[in-house]
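Try it yourself: sequence plus fe (ii) ion, in.
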Amino acid sequence: MKLAQFIIPVIAFIMQPIIVPAQSIDDQSVKTLPTGTITRIAFGSCAFQSVPQPIFRTVANRKPDLYLSLGDAIYADYDLKKKIPYDVTRQTLLREWKILADSPDWQYLSSRVAVMATWDNHDYGHYQAGEAFSLKKESKKIFLDFFSEPDNSIRRQSAGIYDAKIFGPDNKRVQIILLDTRSFKMLPKLAQRPEGSGGSLGKFTPNSDPDARLLGDAQWKWLEKELKKPVQLRIIASSTQIIADQKHMDEWGNFPLERKKLFDLINNSFNSPTLLLSGNVHFSEISELKTKDYNLIDFTSSGLTHTNDTYAQATNKYRIKGPFSDLNFGFIEIDWEDDNGPSITLQAIGLDGTVAYSLKKNFNALSMVK
Ligand SMILES: [Fe+2]
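Structure, out:
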């Protein structure tokens, strides 16, 4: 055996972080948020906590400035062995988040890369939970504790977990907006479908009632203010898809008036190039809405530990990239020095680091229609 063959694995072993089980969910070693120019952002959604999550190592090894966790960071309400949902309690929520806190793969990522997070249904606590969820306060505290939200943070006081931060120097500001699509959400309208048919595809139908609520008044007011802040690049992330609307799963299309309100708000706000991000569907795709009124891109990545080919085959008339239905995360690379003006390259990346598809856009192609 050559010496190098022996030494390299030994050095690699020594360089591994020492995995110490967290005493509690907020007892993790985490990377603090970046202070310099942002050039790389990774995001993903949908990971079972009780199975290995090697893709978190692939994410970390790409050295992003930030990782955005866009929902279903755990499946708190699902027994993976028995394949059945169950009712959560504060104790089961704590127990399941602790499994993620102790995951060597999660620790590998969170000790190296700063994380911002919002939730979807399963990490909120129930697959159908919305504004009426009985454990919403407890779940919020546990979620914010897990993601090391400071005690004096505004997020601790506001209803919901929506969040926004601006990174970088004055001429390279990137704003990250994380929406909360669970805390204020009314139950979407169920589709009429044949007795016995189930599954997530086709479950809901659009509800055009003016009272149908997804974000809620407080979050809309907050969002309006955030969208007035001038930045070089704005990224708005939602747990569920914003543009694609033909799956009739959990998606913004179930709330058409709320969706129109979001698009109009983006258009009427300060004209900052804007990119939408989403998760939830267990595969990856890019959707583009290009009309005389709107010019928007929604980059979806979902499926860190599991994916779904059937969902990926569902029609999406807005799709311009994908579907990619192997394990994946999304990656955004910003080139501030591009000859034609700053640009972003969006990449869907698989477990082994291979790029499944990519799309490059200059900032000025992400601007709103006036
Ligand atoms: Fe999921």
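One thing you can check immediately is this: The domain at 3-365 is CATH 3.60.21.70 (Purple Acid Phosphatase; chain A, domain 2).
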